[in-house]
Each structure stands twice: as C-alpha cells, then as structure tokens.
Automatic annotation (TrEMBL):
Enzyme class: hydrolase
Name this protein carries in UniProt: 6-phosphogluconolactonase
Reactions catalysed, as given in the entry: 6-phospho-D-glucono-1,5-lactone + H2O = 6-phospho-D-gluconate + H(+)
Key word Hydrolase present: yes
E.C. designation(s): 3.1.1.31
Gene3D superfamilies: 3.40.50.1360
GO MF, any single term: 6-phosphogluconolactonase activity
BP term (GO), one: pentose-phosphate shunt
Glucosamine/galactosamine-6-phosphate isomerase domain: residues covered: 7-228
Pathway recorded for this protein: Carbohydrate degradation; pentose phosphate pathway; D-ribulose 5-phosphate from D-glucose 6-phosphate (oxidative stage): step 2/3
Family under the similarity heading: Belongs to the glucosamine/galactosamine-6-phosphate isomerase family. 6-phosphogluconolactonase subfamily.
Length: 240
C-alpha cells in the first residue's frame, strides 16, 4: 500500500501515528511487540516524534523489543553507527527496557557480529525464524534497503538470517538481516522521501523486476503487509 503525503514532515507525522496505532492494537492481543528499526537519516524526525507527546505516552515501552535491520561496522561512538543514531533520537528518551534492546555488536568482527546476532534471533524466536511485528525500512537513492546494496551477493542470501560483507563503494563492512527473514514479518513499512529517491521508487514499485539493480524490490512479505510512506517529491515519477 502506498501512502503519499505532501512533505517529509507530514510523512513522519503520519508514520508516527501509524506505528503507534499498530503497537497499541497489537498489544491488545499479545504481551510484546517486536520492532526492527532502520538507520540512516530519514527516520530521525520520526524517532523524535515517537519520543515526545503524545506518542511517547501512548506506547507501552515496557513491552517493546527493539532489533536492527542493518548496521555499519563502525564503533558505537561513531556517528555513522545506526544504533547510536537510534539511541540519540529515540531510545535514550523513552522508558524502554535496556535488556529488550538488541544491537548488532560492532566490537566483534563483522562476521562474528552477524553470527552473534543470528544466535540472538534463534534464542529469542526459536529455530523456525523470526516473525517480527514490524520492520521499518529506509531506501537509499540507489534502491538499496537494509544493507542489501545493488549488485552485492547478500541480496540473494537464502540460508543465513544475518550476514556481513565488505561494501567496496563505502570501504566499510556492513551487517544486515537477509531478505527471507524480513519477508517473514507481519508488517514492513518503508519510510522514503526526497526528489533524489524518485527514480529508485519508480523502479522499485513500477519497474521491471530487477532485484540486483533495485534490491528494495526483494522486500515482499510472504503473508504480511507492505506499506510505503513517501512524500510527493519521492512519488513524482510514480504519480506521473
Ligand atoms: O545506509 C543506510 O541507508 C539506508 C537508507 O537511509 P536513508 O537515510 O537514505 O533513508 C538505511 O535504511 C540503512 O539502515 C542504512 O544503513
């Protein structure tokens, strides 16, 4: 489902409301909510909104269990670290239970970190694999999501739940959930805005299948819902 709003500000507000309502509704039926958060720049305003009234009070943070979709293999103190950004804009400001926050450990080697995160998921969800209540994704200008970058083998990973690889273009290791695990989620929401994403959004939603060029195309929940929250600038080619 495509949700289009005029400005990035409106997108962030609408998504804050949507996420909060989802959490409230889900927690009427179960006692925990598992949320995979995204990194990058796009979610900063959304996270600030969720950390403030009225959303902060509407969410039962004691029942929130937080995971990451991907991580840049840099120390936690590095500004590029996705977990650091999430703490600064959201988690440090809400009464989340620290033991229910599962960061990708970048003190380990990328390979060990991926294995350790997979072990965490096995322990938490059992061997059948996770089925997260919500996965929040971003999409880069190049159509990547999570750390599934164009023309990288991780796009096709079927066995591992979490994997790592060296991203030549950024001279950095990445750690990422793989597509099959994300596609088991009950709901996946993309947050995407800005004219620089218009081409990728068009190709992902309307273009011919080409997951190597536009990895976001691979995110198709098997039995869950897929939502795109975008602004008019990002949607300009889709709407034309
Ligand atoms: O590198 C990354 O980029 C994507 C997209 O970020 P955005 O700021 O352009 O929305 C992000 O979803 C991912 O977590 C991050 O590692």
């Amino acid at each position: 489902m495509l949700h289009i709003y005029k400005t990035p500000d409106e997108v962030s507000h609408a998504l804050a409301e949507w996420i909060t309502t989802n959490i409230e509704t889900t927690l009427q039926q179960q006692d925990r909510f598992t949320w995979v958060v995204t990194g990058g720049n796009s979610p900063k305003q959304l996270y600030e909104l969720l950390a403030a009234a009225p959303y902060r009070e509407r969410i039962d943070w004691s029942k929130m269990h937080i995971f990451w979709g991907d991580e840049r293999a840099v120390p936690f103190a590095d500004n590029r670290n996705n977990a650091k950004m999430t703490f600064e804009h959201l988690l440090d400001k809400v009464p989340v239970v620290r033991e229910q926050v599962y960061i990708m450990d970048t003190t380990l080697s990328p390979e060990e970190s991926a294995k350790a995160y997979e072990a965490i998921l096995h322990k938490y969800f059992g061997n059948d694999g996770p089925s997260f209540d919500l996965v929040l994704n971003g999409m880069g200008d190049d159509g990547h999501t999570l750390s599934l970058f164009p023309h990288t083998p991780v796009i096709h990973e079927q066995k591992a739940w979490v994997t790592s690889f060296y991203l030549d273009a950024q001279q950095m290791y990445r750690i990422t959930l793989t597509a099959p695990i994300v596609n088991r989620a009950r709901k996946v929401a993309f947050l995407t805005f800005g004219a620089n994403k218009a081409n990728a959004l068009f190709e992902v939603l309307k273009g011919a299948p080409n997951i190597d060029q536009y990895p976001s195309q691979i995110i198709q929940p098997a039995s869950g819902q897929l939502h795109w929250f975008v602004d008019e600038a990002a949607a300009s080619k889709v709407q034309a």
